Amino acid sequence: MLENERKDIENQKVNEDPLTKAIGAIGKWQIWICFVVFLVKFPVAWHQMSIIFLAPPVNFTCASDQSTETFNNICNASCTDYEYDRSIFKETIISQWDLVCDRHWMKNFTQTVFMLGILVGNMVFGHLSDRFGRRMPFLAAVFLQLISGVATAYSINWYMFTTLRFLLAVATGGTMVTSFVLTMELVGAKYRESVGIIYQIPFNLGHLSLALFGYYIRDWSNFQLAISLPSVIFLSYYYLLPESPRWLLTASKTEEAVKVMEIAAKRNGLPTEGIASSIQKMAVEISNKQEEHASFLALFRRPRLRTRTIAICFNWFVCGLCFFGVSQYIGHVSGNIFTNVAISAAIQVPGTLISIYANRLLGRKITVISANCITSLSCLLINFVSQSGALHLSLGCTGLLGMSISFATVYLYAGELFPTVVRNSGVGLSSTVARIGSMVAPFVATFSHTSPWLPPVVFGIVPLIGAGLCFLLPDTRGRKLPDTLEEGEA
After folding, report:
1. Which residues of 318-338 are buried (b: 16+ CB within 10 A; e: fewer)?
2. How many angstroms from the chain centroid is the CA of residue 100?
3. Max CA separation in the chain (angstroms)
4. Rounded to 5 degrees, what are φ and ψ at 91?
5. Per-residue model confidence as pLDDT tens digits over 28-56
6. Which of 38, 305, 450, 480 is paired with 71 by a 20 to 30 Å CA distance?
7. Which residues lie closer than 8 Å to 474 by C-beta, 6 or more apart?
8. Can you spell out the DSSP letters for 169-196?
């Protein structure tokens, strides 16, 4: 009985949203747009994880050493030329620019700069798309991703490579935040959780397919070119992608919003006669309630919104720190690099699928709390088992499974929690915090060399704090997306 009453209340809240009522919660139009946008996640995964094959572990020896029959990986201060083992990879950025010994830090710094670029892209494009709409910043990010990605393949030195990779990361961060928010604003609340989580699967598949690129293309320059050129198809999105009608309404562009919604309604087989009048009324209500402009600083000016912003951002930090940190902690295993990458990617898929059903049954709050606790318990137990045993690896994989559930959910949670006027800025800020977590993760993971007990403790306690902060958040399952700061505060 209580379950039926809850569903009735949720359905009533959905029906109160004139936009969803006019174009439908989901239909042919939304499915097509989501499919088109989801394809962008493939190059996002390729570029984020490409360092695995751009700079894989390579054995080397000094070229002047007479015993070059074996690669001893010994650094010699007097050595200026090195020989590399090319039995697996013909050319990497390490062998191209001698990123070994006293230049080894340059390989790690390149990835740090890339993650910084993702962070910058999240913030810059999040702000731009709140001010100028979702569509044009998205298209600009896709174009920049194509140009910088292809140019990176023709880098003549490490400095050029790192600079272009930074621009590529800015673009990649821009496509991540704008594409997600666009899909969330087109789908009704009833299907938002499924679509928001399925949005993560193309990233998982992109990560999985990266192993194929690496296996068949063993030269870093050709590899970089191969993962960049597919972005050419995204230039067609100028004609395929509409602007978000929700953003058009909050930007007082009612006529444009009506046009987009009439096209959507026709495609979904719904009547279009009453759209103009109902949307005009909705636009008046929104304009009466909202400020002229709202930056991400508005998220911290109201007490409830500030508390919720801090809580959700910390949980994004948890995901960035623990997902990448635990991956690195258990990822230093011998074996075939292509198989290892494929397995690490495949682990994420079940977690993403589980999160769909968990969000339907438990809601956002309980799902994140439960997933964080799974990761926390798994990591803390690592200290009580043998590091060389199968149980050690199983606990690490369980921790990754928990993080894949949590990561998919916090994406959805943030998209529903922040008001339309600052949604891109809010999601961008959250994703930025996640990037900070992923930048800290390698340092925490490497503590295992000096203090083996420390990384599992950190990866165990931090998710527990995140789970506690979730109690400060409302559950957004089935609720109308807040459009103004007042609705977000309420």
Report:
1. bbbbbbbbbbbbbbeeeeebb
2. 31
3. 84
4. -150, 135
5. 888 898 898 889 999 999 998 888 889 88
6. 450
7. 308, 365, 417
8. HHHHHHHHHHHHHHHHHHS-HHHHHHHH
163-168, long-range: CB within 8 Å, 24+ apart, which pairs?
Answer: 165/110, 165/113, 165/114, 165/117, 166/113, 166/114, 166/116, 166/117, 167/117, 168/47, 168/114, 168/117, 168/144
267 exposed, middle or buried (CB, 10 Å; 0-12, 13-18, 19+)? middle
List the beta bridge partners of residue 62: 82
| Residue 248, Cβ density class (10 Å: 0-12 exposed, 13-18 middle, ≥19 buried) | buried
Write out pLDDT tens, residues 141-154. Answer: 999 999 999 999 99
Please give the Cα distance from 328 to 348 (Å, whole number): 14
Instruction: Give yes or no for a contact between 375 and 403, defined as CB atoms under 8 angstroms apart.
Output: yes
Q: Which residues contact 441 (CB under 8 A, 6 or more apart)?
A: 320, 321, 322, 323, 324, 325, 328
Q: Which two tokens stand for residue 429?
A: 């800020």
Question: Could you tell me the two tokens for 266?
Answer: 């026709």
